[in-house]
Amino acid sequence: MESSKWDPATAADALDRAEGTRRALVDGLRPPRGFFVSLGVVVALTIILTAVGIARQALAPVLLAAALFAVVAAAEMLWSRRTSGVWVGDFAREVVLGTGTSASTAYVLGLGAATWAAFVDQWWWMVASAFVAGAAYAVAGHRWLRRYRATS
Amino acid sequence: MTGLDERLVAPARLQLAAMLSPVTEAEFGTIREVLAVSDSVLSKHLGQLEAAGYVRRRKDVLGGRRTTWVALTGDGQRALAAHVAALRELIAVSERAPSRGRPAGSVPSPRPGRG
User: Fold this and answer.
1) CB-based contact B84 A15, cutoff 8 Å
2) Separation of alpha carbons B53 and B43, rounded Å
3) pLDDT in tens, A5-35
4) Taking CB atoms and an 8 Å cutoff, what residues of chain A touch B111?
5) What DSSP string describes A38-50?
6) Which of B17, B91, B111 is the closest to A152 by Cβ?
7) CA nearest neighbour of B20 among A115, A18, A127, A45
8) Closest by alpha carbon to B22, among B81, B66, B63, B67?
9) Displacement of CA B108 from its chain's centroid (Å)
10) Is B19 close to A6, i.e. CB distance below 8 A?
11) Helices in chain A by DSSP H: which ranges?
């Protein structure tokens, strides 16, 4: 390698250009419009169906909730991957599957509150709990994406 | 200069490796747009990095058309980190000698692959 090729200015320029393209790709990771809203809604519906299934001791709503979440989560991931042309495994886990602390806590608390409400026939409380949890789940995913963009 | 990887010396290949480092994989057309190069140029660089074991390619169908997804391998991540460290060292040496070079400015920090 020619040492003259790698004077400090050339090295700094190469690193700056590499940083620029990396930043451009990371910034391109943008979920499609409506992604977080649909994610929050499906999480809320999943909580409602699961809570009803537990309160009524019926398996069908719980299985339906699992199937609904699986189908929508898969569609969301494919949709996002297709739109952005980039795939980040952590995005699928943290945002869609909700493995982060905030999202999983929101889900558990929402399911607990909705299940209690279903047991005591407080249906409005059940729906409200589920949708608050769904919103928190979506917000947690949105915040994770912002952190990812800022730190990558 | 020790530590510089000759397979990453070309600016386009360094850019390619750097942009793949924070993602699990990226689609060929997306990479081409970000790098602003032609299909053939990108294919050539990818072929060289693939031959070195730094990237892997897989075919897929996206939106009804065939496409290629590209990922940086573990060897590629390590080579990129070593190459960037060598470049930084080169810049740092010049900064210790005030009359030479320029401030490093914004430089990338290779991160472990997301995935």
Assistant:
1) yes
2) 15
3) 678 888 899 999 999 999 988 887 888 889 9
4) 152
5) HHHHHHHHHHHHH
6) B111
7) A18
8) B81
9) 11
10) no
11) 8-27, 35-55, 59-84, 89-91, 101-119, 123-151
> Strands B25-27 and B55-62, how do they pair?
unpaired
Give the list of residues 6+ apart from residue B61 with CB closer than 8 angstroms, or none.
Answer: B67
Q: Which of A6, A9, A25 shows the shortest C-beta gap to B34? A: A25
Overall average pLDDT of the B20-36 stretch:
93
Helix, strand, or coil (residue A31) = coil
B103: left (phi over 0), alpha (psi -120 to 50) or beta: beta
Q: How far is A120 from chain B (nearest CA, A)?
A: 43
B9: buried, middle or exposed (CB in 10 Å: 19+, 13-18, 0-12)? Answer: middle
Report yes or no: A14 and B100 within 8 Å, Cβ to Cβ: no
B32-75 pLDDT tens trace: 999 999 999 999 999 999 999 999 999 988 667 889 999 999 99
B106 close to A13: Cβ distance less than 8 angstroms: no
pTM (predicted TM-score):
0.81
Q: Which residue has the tokens 């299909």?
A: B39
- Cβ–Cβ gap A28/B19 under 8 Å: no
A43 vs chain B: nearest CA distance in angstroms?
24
Q: Tell me, yes or no, if A60 comes closer than 8 A to chain B by beta carbon.
A: no
